[in-house]
Specification:
The complex is a heterodimer of chains A (302) and B (151). By secondary structure, chain A is of the alpha/beta class. Chain A is built from nine helices and nine strands. The chains are: A alpha/beta (302), B mainly beta (151).
């Protein structure tokens, strides 16, 4: 279908987003297949990311594919000083597709230019993590029935949050309204506001949760990390402001769902887990179907 | 006593690049590969200039540039003017333009970018020309004029 590397969420058009999501829905109905029989997929994790790797490996295994690779660079020849170029060139001989996670930004784009086999970016530093964005979109569409005209709340670290930025870019093609809730130090960067202004999309910035969340269709939570603050006192003062608790959800819409890219630390109180509006663990399951869709379409098998 | 003047003679055929900022002369030389050209070249630098304070000038005998090549110096010498000389006459005047894509020349300002960690030629899309903003093809971060470093 698409048959090209997936390096950045901006590589997909609106039509291609929809195609992948439709295909993921087919895999959800019928996740066990032999589509990848006889295929070898390399999962090269130059830095550890257990959650992402297991999700990919589960997606591949359910389709009958075989996996080669490493789980962090200490167990590969990178520690011997091998360049990324050499690693990619070599592994290309052993596999049909490379899934890679790397701490340096732009590494996946570079890899896609030095090999003839497709690359799927499973995170390149603070830059892109497109399969996460696709699974977020899948979760939004599945719970809301549409991607169009939704009121999306993005909460927490909006300055450094890679998932937030990619989701914002991707969802911007579907006429959303955004509400940003974050401490001053972690506000959404000006560049993204400029991007939304240019598209004529509405957005509002808030410093804390208010009654406004009653309008939310989606609340997308992220972690507020202590090390992001220049002033530790400021962190202590604000950290509890960005914790979602069950009693705050009383007046929210019945159809509203809470998403989180995980791992969660304390920003969603565990009492929320029992609320039917909590969707973050289902969201992680959706990641398997979305990755099945991306892998098979990247290999031109569907 | 007669005044002794060292005269840089006019060139018969070639190119004169004027209005180069004096402190960027050697960058212009490197970008255009003039350090490995075998033709006659004359440089002048720290010359008075109303626009630039101190300017530099390059006279190249028997050398002509394609627009594509000369536009490479636009980031370091945005006000540069070229006079194309044929038979001692100026037959064409050119100004430099910032191209849509920059290959090499500039370093990505992001230390976490793969181009700063492995031997890769940098590549940028120019997203703003008035106030120069370059988007890295690899890490997608934006290098602006203030953070721009010439390789």
């Amino acid at each position: 279908m698409i048959y090209k590397s997936l390096v950045s969420i901006n590589d997909y058009s609106k039509k291609e987003y929809i195609e992948i999501l439709d295909l993921a829905a087919e895999f959800e109905n019928n996740p066990i297949r032999e589509t990848l029989k006889g295929k070898v997929i390399a999962t090269l994790f130059f830095e550890p990311s257990t959650r992402t790797r297991l999700s990919f490996e589960s997606a591949i295994s359910k389709l009958g594919g075989k996996i080669v690779g490493f789980t962090d660079s200490s167990s590969s020849s990178v520690t011997k000083g091998e360049t990324l170029y050499d690693t990619i060139k070599t592994v290309s001989n052993y596999s049909d597709l490379i899934v890679m996670r790397h701490p340096l930004e732009g590494s996946a784009r570079y890899a896609s230019e030095i090999t003839n086999i497709p690359i799927i970016n499973a995170g390149d530093g603070a830059n892109q993590h497109p399969t996460q964005t696709m699974l977020d979109m899948y979760s939004i569409r599945k719970t809301q029935g549409t991607l169009e005209n939704l009121n999306i709340f993005l909460v927490g670290d909006l300055k450094y949050g890679r998932t937030v930025h990619s989701l914002l870019m991707a969802m911007s093609q579907f006429n959303p309204t955004f509400n940003f809730i974050s401490p001053d130090e972690l506000k959404i960067p000006e560049g993204y506001k400029y991007f939304l202004d240019n598209l004529g999309l509405k957005y509002y910035e808030h410093k804390d949760f208010t009654d406004i969340i009653s309008r939310a269709d989606i609340i997308y939570m992220t972690r507020v990390q202590k090390e992001r603050f220049s002033d530790p006192i400021e962190y202590e003062r604000t950290k509890n402001t960005y914790v979602l608790k069950n009693n705050m959800l009383t007046n929210t819409k019945d159809s509203m769902r809470i998403l989180h890219p995980l791992p969660r630390v304390s920003e969603i109180d565990i009492d929320v887990d029992q609320n039917p509006k909590a969707y973050y663990f289902n969201q992680a399951l959706n990641g398997v179907f979305v990755r099945q869709a991306i892998i098979t379409s990247t290999l031109g098998l569907i | 006593m007669k005044d002794k003047i060292l005269e840089v003679s006019a060139i018969k055929d070639g190119t004169v690049i004027d209005h180069i900022p004096a402190d960027h002369l050697f960058k212009v030389i490197t970008i255009l590969g003039l350090d490995i050209v075998s033709k006659k070249i004359t440089f002048g630098t720290n010359l008075e200039s109303k626009k630039l304070g101190k300017k530099a000038i390059i006279k190249l005998s028997g050398v002509f540039f394609k627009d594509k090549d000369i536009n490479k110096i636009s980031l370091v010498a945005p006000l540069a003017k070229l006079n194309v000389i044929r038979n001692y006459e100026v037959v064409d005047k050119k100004i430099v333009e910032i191209p849509d894509d920059i290959i090499g020349i500039v370093k990505c300002f992001n230390p976490q970018c793969i181009t700063n960690n492995e031997a890769i030629t940098t590549k940028f899309r120019v997203i703003s020309k008035s106030e120069v903003k370059l988007k890295c093809h690899y890490c997608e971060k934006i290098t602006d004029a203030e953070h721009m470093e010439i390789l």
